[in-house]
Design brief:
The complex is a heterodimer of chains A (269) and B (94).
Chain A lengths: L7 H10 L1 E4 L5 H13 L8 E2 H4 L5 H7 L1 H11 L4 E10 L24 E6 L11 E2 L18 E2 L3 E2 L6 E6 L4 E2 L9 E9 L16 H7 L10 H17 L9 H5 L9
Antiparallel strand pairs in A: 1-8, 2-3, 3-10, 4-8, 4-10, 5-7, 5-9
Helix pairs in contact in A: 1-6
Chain B lengths: L4 E11 L8 E8 L19 H6 L3 E5 L19 E10 L1
Antiparallel strand pairs in B: 1-2, 1-4, 3-4
Classes of the chains: A alpha+beta (269), B mainly beta (94).
Chain lengths: 269, 94
């Protein structure tokens, strides 16, 4: 398992971008099997069902989440024994449907020291015309409620997913996203599972590179859609999440958090 | 419904600062003529570089976001885009 855990640099990417992408990690034979499995449907489970109960040994979904790269990433993000919040198969029919409004799932979620992860699995090659999921890097700290962001059609630096078959993307629960209109001749399939943690999400990944300067560099990523001033607040929110994830309440980047919390108590003599 | 007359096209630009000549970071379009159907995630390139560039191309500014101070205790929260500008063009349809 350890070799498949995320590194600190990958975790920093998750904190900055709100997602981790695992390209073509699902083998071809499973991708071939997936469309029929997803068309037939995967039985729903009650909210909060442990993975082992939600997805019986040998089932397609269980084999998917047990793939070493997928299991390692999930373990790094939500820890051991997460529960399944819910899962769903999304099908965008050929030349069918309309784009979803940009939204965050569920309802506004203000947690700082805990987060859910949404797994999105794409069993086919996804082209731009097939309407792969739109997502907005670095939008997961925005405190907005579900589709209240529907007016935002396009943001600079947005991601319109194009990927190879077998790609899995793991999203922070707050990330703005939406299924795009499918303008192709091919129906597009996506399988989503939302996981809830059952442990404190502190240093669950491979922390060997925790002191690597790359971590702060990645956490300093600025996205083209950020407004000049609010973009600085995004750094503040990342620092706060990184402190929660590492348990290190001295961590900072460019003095953003230290400066505004400096209240000396020493009395000058 | 389809009677000849004038129809409104609406352009919404989200800018980097409260200045109308700052850079576009987000955009949306709505077309009252029915000739186009802009939608979510349909383009990666903004229609204009700045708000003023839209004015120069004939769009009329009809609404701009007010500047609202943060609620006490929520100064570091991030939420909706702050600098939203609505533009319109009136187009004749026959």
């Amino acid at each position: 398992m350890r070799q498949h855990l995320l590194t600190s640099a990958q975790m920093a990417h998750f904190v900055a971008y709100g997602s981790v992408r695992l390209d073509a990690v699902v083998p071809a034979d499973m991708n071939d099997e997936a469309v029929k499995v997803l068309t037939d449907g995967i039985p729903p489970v009650p909210y909060g069902t442990p993975v082992a109960e939600a997805f019986p040994e040998g089932s397609f979904a269980r084999r998917l989440v047990d793939l070493p790269e997928v299991a390692g990433a999930l373990r790094s993000l939500v820890g051991p024994a997460p529960t399944v919040d819910h899962h769903a198969v999304h099908v965008r029919e050929a030349h069918g449907g309309e784009a979803q409004p940009l939204h965050g799932d569920a309802i506004i979620d203000t947690r700082v020291d805990a987060f859910d992860v949404q797994l999105m699995y794409y069993p086919q090659d996804v082209t731009l015309e097939m309407g792969g999921t739109l997502s907005v890097p670095g939008s997961h700290f925005r405190r907005t409620n579900e589709s209240d962001t529907g007016r935002y059609q396009n943001l600079r630096g947005q991601t319109r997913l194009v990927c190879r078959a077998g790609t899995v993307v793991l999203l922070h629960h707050g990330l703005w996203h939406g299924g795009r209109r499918n303008d192709s001749d091919t129906a597009r399939y996506m399988f989503k599972i939302r996981f809830n943690p059952t442990v404190r999400q502190v240093r669950l990944w491979n922390t060997d590179d925790l002191a690597d300067p790359a971590v702060a560099e990645i956490l300093s990523t600025r996205f083209p859609w950020y407004e000049a001033a609010t973009g600085r607040l995004e750094f503040y929110n990342r620092i706060r999440m990184w402190r929660a994830l590492t348990g290190d309440d001295t961590f900072d980047i460019e003095y953003w958090m230290t400066r505004v919390s400096n209240r000396p108590q020493r009395v000058a003599s | 419904m389809n009677a000849p007359g004038v129809r409104q096209q609406v352009l919404v630009l989200y800018l980097s600062t409260s200045a109308l000549d700052s850079e576009v970071v987000g955009w949306a379009r709505y077309d009252g003529t029915g000739r186009t159907s802009p939608t979510t995630g349909d383009s990666d390139e903004p229609p204009y570089r700045t708000g003023v560039a839209a004015l120069r191309d004939g769009w009329r500014l009809i609404q701009a976001s007010p500047l609202i101070p943060p609620y006490p205790g929520h100064e570091y929260d991030v939420s909706f885009l702050k600098h939203e500008f609505f533009f319109e063009q009136l187009v004749s349809v026959s």
